[in-house]
Amino acid sequence: MKYDVIIVGGSYAGMAAALQLIRARRSVLVIDAGLRRNRFASHSHGFLGQDGADPAEIAATARAQLHAYPTLTWIDETAQAAAGVKDAFVVTTADGRRHEGRRLLFAVGVTDILPEIEGMTERWGKSIFHCPYCHGYELSQGTIGVIACGAMSIHQAQLIPEWGAVTFLTNAAVALDPDSQADLTARGVTTEATPIARIEGHADVILVDGRTLSFAGLFTASRNAPATPIAGLLGCELEETPFGSQIRTDATKETTAPGAFACGDAARVPHSVSLAVADGAWAGAQVHRSLVF
């Protein structure tokens, strides 16, 4: 069977796009590996109507609603390769099957590239975060540490005092010029230049000199890259942003490969569930228009 659209990635952006397309009675195949970016978090905040909900439940409810439409096909599998041209794409999954579609939509999400600090990975999404709008309120205006990993970390340290008393841990990852230092000081930010040895407990930062700094929560401006190279394998160009690399798209969410589109965290910045859903809905409508006109 040749589908009207194959969507690679069935998280929030991919499902939002699928909803627009199946409501236009188009045949849609969603191929999803089941690795949502926010799978480490127990609560999602800032998404209207779902504030504080378990992100897994949000995704499960959305998927159940999609399955009410007869033109949806869903495969729990990993898409390994994409080839072809507009109106004649082929996506190969890990089980060796080949799936044909007239259009492709990459909603593959991103991988978070974290600073290499012992104890960070296992706390990601639990007591270490990237988005203060998603997780800052729950820290109850307590002490917050911002761990530097690049130039964007300065902006993060400037913003987060809105949510609590901030210590900026530069960790030899960023050099502050006099103007930046003065700006942070004016915002009440404490700067700590001693490198980090590891993170323990809830959010206890152990410095190399043996001191322990305890926080209600930690933030870091993780670098991002598409969670899978499949769009690049098709020939879609990537572009650099202050947050990392993403799939290049135009205003209609079409990539540099005609007939292939991209949406969600892998194709826009900044990132949140709300923005991913909005981007997916727009992409789904634009993919549909490309089939009509």
Automatic annotation (TrEMBL):
Tree of life domain: Bacteria
Name of this protein: Thioredoxin reductase
Xref: Pfam families: Pyr_redox_2
UniProt cross-references to Gene3D superfamilies, sorted A to Z: FAD/NAD(P)-binding domain
InterPro entries: FAD/NAD-bd_sf (IPR036188), FAD/NAD-binding_dom (IPR023753), Ferredoxin-NADP_redctase_2 (IPR050097)
GO MF, any single term: oxidoreductase activity
Signal peptide interval: none
Domain FAD/NAD(P)-binding: 3-280
UniProtKB keywords: Flavoprotein, Oxidoreductase
